[in-house]
């Protein structure tokens, strides 16, 4: 059996755990730089606040509906997430952390278990210990456990947050209830194509002939189909290294000069390089993106990206930053007000296992230098060592006007009790 | 080892330590007398281990005010709170009452819940269905500067 444990409105629930007066209120959490809504309480959903709503457009709405709005507090969410995941490991050794607020569990050798009870125990322990409500779906396969968790989430009164698909009848009923666009692994494009074929639910999907699916889609979809049929096909994924690492941000202001943009891109490149070294990878390719403010339709729009192939894989901040800055200079156009940039490093290989190049290679001094920089920046935090093309004054100028305290990671921010 | 029991299986979770200050005995020197302490090394004491019994459920809070001075909770003291513990009569609990956090001693008597301050200047509070009330966690330790 598999379970999918999904934290309900996770960021919102984290805020509520330390600020219980937000219970039963409309709450919205904004993305980095207070850009758009990325988490909503059920109450906020009910009054029609859409996911992804740009904050500046909805200021009136927030005020009129008394929505409590917060900047995203990733130190808090990260800590609460790791608490939840650690608790899950107490229920089975086989846990796949799927995202910050979701995990798959596999139960091997749990024969004769009452999974409804077990699911309730999981839910209760997480709720009591961390204050985070979850929806638990349990079923014979991964894809079905995801379906079950959606049912648990949608019908909290009937399911009390836990739903088990055990019988064939329950499976069929659940699949008929699940809309095709809500099936795990079926994206927007695919669900559009399937709907044209009158395939509207997960049940319709498993009625499609295997040959047709393989011919029109890929092996991924045919494996998904088997999983939905109740035949264990998808396994828990091992903790894998990422295939690409991205740092993309909106700026606080718009920039129309190249200097500010170079600085930002260098900082994003630095962050990517750090993440590369953390997971022990080197990158072959750097993608740099630049775009104007797409909400300001009256201004000249310019959205562009470019890819740089490196002669040898690297994790050196010096090289990645230099290449990224060159790349952004080449795509920058005068007279555009840019609002957003991003650096993505991809084509990743393990740092100790890549093809060497006879004629071009990284300066061997970079590796020990990066090691020292990482150590110092970790020890003293706040980026004591930066590249010359980064802004030395700028520490962390993310716009976070509505940030809640870092209740669990900063001693000065812990809750006060009278 | 922490132990979790469910209906038929018992789980043992290995404990891991970070920054616990393990002493390092360098016994690899070929010349010289080997350290006589080598065979007797133990983990250096860690306050974390003493004060935090359940890492995932433990949170900290700061005392503000005088209402619990009788129990040794002074202004600005640091509280260690374990949310996994069950509330019970006479335990000191952090509660959320009508919009703010408060720390008081729980008094449970024939189905009624009271919040008992430990300072004669403060009134005892009876919890009724009118109150917006949750028991947030149980206080296990208080840490104070002297």
Describe this structure in words.
- The complex is a heterodimer of chains A (418) and B (146).
- Chain A has 418 residues and is of the alpha+beta class.
- Chain A folds into three domains: 7-75, MutS, DNA mismatch repair protein, domain I; 76-228, Reverse transcriptase/Diguanylate cyclase domain (Alpha-Beta Plaits); 244-380, Dna Ligase, domain 1.
- Helix content of chain A is 39%, strand content 21%.
- Chain A is built from 15 helices and 13 strands.
- A five-stranded mixed beta sheet of chain A has the order 5-6-1-7-8. A four-stranded antiparallel beta sheet of chain A has the order 9-12-10-11, covered by helices on one side.
- In chain A, strand 5 (94-99) and strand 6 (102-106) form a beta hairpin.
- The mean pLDDT of chain A is 91.
- The mean pLDDT of chain B is 86.
- In chain B, strand 1 (2-5) and strand 2 (10-13) form a beta hairpin.
- Chain B starts with a strand and ends with a strand.
- Chain B has 146 residues and is mainly β.
- Chain B is 3% helix and 37% strand.
- Chain B has one helix at residues 47-51, and strands at 2-5, 10-13, 58-63, 78-82, 92-97, 100-109, 112-116, 125-127, 133-143.
- A seven-stranded antiparallel beta sheet of chain B has the order 3-4-9-5-6-7-8, with no helix packed on it. A two-stranded antiparallel ribbon of chain B has the order 1-2.
- The interface between A and B is medium-sized, with 28 and 33 residues.
- Strand 13 of chain A pairs parallel with strand 3 (58-63) of chain B.
